[in-house]
Amino acid sequence: MKKASYLLVIVLCSFYLLAGWDSAVQADAAKAGETEIGYHIYAILPENQKNPDSSFFDLQMKPGQKQTIEVAVANTSVEDQTYTIEINPAYTNDQGFIDYSEKKETEEKQRELTIDHIATYEKKITVPKGQTEKVPITLTMPEEAYKGELLAGIKVSKVKKQTNQVGIANTYSYLLGLRLTESDQKIQRKIGVKKIEPTIAFGKASVAIDLINPVREAYGHLTYHVEIKNEETGKKINEKTYSGLQLAPVSTYHFSIDWDDEQLVAGNYQLVLTIEDKKDNQWTFHRNFAISPDAAKQVNTVVVQENRFPYQALLIGIVGLIIGAILIFCIIKWKNKRRTRRKL
């Protein structure tokens, strides 16, 4: 059995989009991470770095350009260590933030240009104790020019040696941002709705709206206001406002609206969703959707089962404690009797 538990020390998670992320927090996270895991990484910034004060790669590229960039891996531990390297294209996670921590196989990734398609690099390196090694990553830009930005995270992980027979291992990782652009030409932002369906999100009955960002630009500081009404009666069923969200370039966001611990009711509904950013863009969507009796029953049943108090497990635990206490009592009593007999 192998268990991977990640300590992601974010050198830069969402570039300039993460509200509230400051250099002090970043430095503390990096310091704490290095103390615990015995290594750190940093970008060796090339001449075409757009902002030399940034700690991540933000490169101005040209069509057909081939360039090798380097990531330094410093092993500060007292043992030789092996590290794995992977490049993860940006995606929008279920919480509504740009993420790079996993390699997501998405529909958009299969048909769109992403950094991992144009990058070649060694997937594993070994760094001697107390030494620093440079990891070369070769970027080969397509001949055809593109608009917008390509975002990814360079993930460096150290897998600790197995410490017991069951094979449990902890994986500690750093993420380093990588952004590629070919021009500063502005792109018209767009957002679309793909589908609406009942679902379970974070243990609650919900309705999910699949939102698509079809352009190569990251959106930040998004505010969502959603209102759902019964189509027949016009009664307001649900209303929510979310702020500070993000969308990765060319990605789908599974935007879930929870039902406030209520069960889903089959019927026809009207949805009005308004999305705003900090650049005076606004998108409003009016959609009708239906929740079938079967879908409502399926979601509600699973939610009830997941949230049901585990009485059976609690009962088994209590019985186990009682039996254990009785056994201990009997053993102590038996030992005391033996001592008494010996004295006689």
In short:
The protein is built from five helices and 19 strands. With 344 residues, the protein is an alpha+beta fold.
Describe what this molecule looks like in 3D.
- This protein has 344 residues and is α+β, with helices and mostly antiparallel strands.
- It has three domains: 6-181, Immunoglobulins (Immunoglobulin-like); 192-306, Immunoglobulins (Immunoglobulin-like, Sandwich); 315-344.
- The chain has five helices and 19 strands.
- The strands form five sheets. Strands 1, 3, 5, 9, 11 and 12 form a six-stranded mixed sheet that branches. Strands 2-4-10-8 form a four-stranded antiparallel sheet. A four-stranded antiparallel sheet has the order 16-15-18-19.
- The chain starts with 5 loop residues before the first strand and ends with a helix.
CATH class of the largest domain: Mainly Beta
Distance from first to last alpha carbon: 55 Å
Q: Measured on Cα atoms, how large is the radius of gyration?
A: 27 Å
- Main pleated sheet: 6 strands, mixed
User: Which CATH-level-2 architecture of the largest domain?
Assistant: Sandwich
**Mean of residue pLDDT?**
84
- Total tally of structural domains: 3
Q: Segments where pLDDT lies below 50 for 5+ residues?
A: 1-7, 9-32
Number of strands: 19
Shape: flat
SSE-based structural type: alpha+beta
% residues in beta strands: 35-45%
Spell out the CATH superfamily of the largest domain.
Answer: Immunoglobulins
Number of helical regions:
5
CATH topology assignment of the largest domain:
Immunoglobulin-like
Q: Helicity level, as a percent range?
A: 10-25%
